[in-house]
């Protein structure tokens, strides 16, 4: 009984009810109801090529209203996988699919999930190590701290007191440009802005160059971007290729196949405001003009230092969110 399954979810247990799979079903259902018109390309004998605009942008007024209501219900609050708030979200999707007359079922999985801690901190220190300013690790738009705190899922806990270097997007070419300026990140905190590809790749590259931690800033006109930094594609790292059911065989954390999927250094997403506060305190070569876009940084250099960054990242073993 799916309802019984949902009700049995103990609060705080690391269980993932696959709402995404159900959402996919909703999409498929919607697509199935589309008239065949835009899909067919008469005459040329090849497979029909769907026109995405026709598929997604010409829904009826009734579909618009129900999509709006579902989106509102599902986005009204955080429902991070494995937290108590995930069960009502899954129940909502289940209810809607049932109402549409579909046969439904739910499955419980117990993959390795990663949750943010509240003990993380970020501060600027003077070159002599005395405190200069505390920097916010919060989402600027979330003053009431109602949302999931900004974090990079699967980042290791760790701490660093080190000079910072602004690495632009954190791509190979950015490190090459820094090298031409005589600036390296070894033993330092890399401060990047978002846009250099998969964030896990940005963190791994910084680690490869010797950085001890990475902060990735969102755009000045956007928020803080949470996300995963695991390497090697999606999926539970402990059950690669098979289902993470309760009794399933699992690889150990010391298994090479598991270890190489985890980042070696701590990282966090930060607001543009926080990144700019760090970058404005940096000396060194001036920031290349094209690196200033997006963040809205108008002063400072690429570093390193002379200020120090004191960064502590603390992850939680279990979900701490109350809904
Ligand atoms: C559905 O909503 C979209 C986005 O607001 C709008 O562009 C479109 O015209 C709406 N369609 C109908 C049929 O109301
Ligand atoms: C760095 O921050 C941590 C956590 O807030 C704190 O315990 C530590 O004393 C700080 N280190 C310095 C050198 O300020």
UniProtKB/TrEMBL annotation:
UniProt keyword Glycoprotein present: yes
Transmembrane annotation, as ranges: 12-31
InterPro entries for this protein: PA_dom_sf, Peptidase_M28B
GO molecular function: carboxypeptidase activity
Entry keyword set: Carboxypeptidase, Glycoprotein, Hydrolase, Membrane, Protease, Transmembrane, Transmembrane helix
Name by which UniProt lists this protein: Glutamate carboxypeptidase 2
């Amino acid at each position: 009984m799916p309802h019984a399954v949902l009700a049995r979810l103990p609060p705080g247990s690391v269980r993932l009810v696959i709402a995404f799979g159900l959402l996919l079903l909703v999409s498929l259902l919607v697509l199935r109801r589309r008239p065949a018109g835009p899909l067919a390309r008469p005459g040329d004998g090849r497979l029909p090529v769907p026109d995405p605009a026709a598929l997604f942008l010409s829904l009826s007024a009734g579909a618009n209203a129900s999509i709006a209501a579902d989106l509102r219900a599902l986005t009204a609050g955080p429902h991070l996988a494995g937290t108590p708030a995930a069960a009502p979200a899954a129940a909502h999707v289940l209810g809607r699919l049932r109402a549409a007359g579909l046969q439904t079922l739910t499955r419980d999985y117990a993959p390795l999930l990663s949750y943010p801690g509240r003990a993380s901190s970020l501060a600027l220190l003077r070159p002599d190590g005395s405190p200069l300013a505390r920097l916010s690790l919060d989402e600027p738009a979330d003053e009431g701290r109602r949302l999931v705190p900004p974090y990079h899922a699967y980042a290791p806990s760790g701490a660093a007191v080190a000079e910072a270097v602004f690495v632009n997007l954190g791509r190979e070419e950015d490190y090459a440009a820094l090298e031409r300026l005589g600036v390296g990140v070894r033993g330092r905190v890399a401060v990047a802005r978002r846009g250099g590809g998969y964030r896990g790749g940005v963190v791994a590259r910084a680690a490869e160059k010797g950085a001890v931690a990475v902060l990735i800033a969102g755009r000045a006109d956007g928020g803080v971007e949470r996300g995963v930094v695991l390497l090697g594609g999606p999926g539970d790292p402990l059950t690669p290729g098979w289902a993470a059911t309760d009794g399933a065989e699992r690889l150990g954390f010391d298994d090479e196949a598991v270890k190489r999927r985890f980042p070696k250094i701590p990282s966090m997403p930060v607001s543009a405001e926080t990144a700019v506060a760090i970058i404005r305190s940096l000396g060194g070569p001036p920031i290349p003009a094209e690196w200033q876009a997006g963040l809205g940084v108008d002063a400072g250099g690429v570093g390193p230092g002379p200020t120090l960054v004191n960064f502590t990242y603390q992850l939680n073993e279990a979900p701490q969110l109350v809904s």
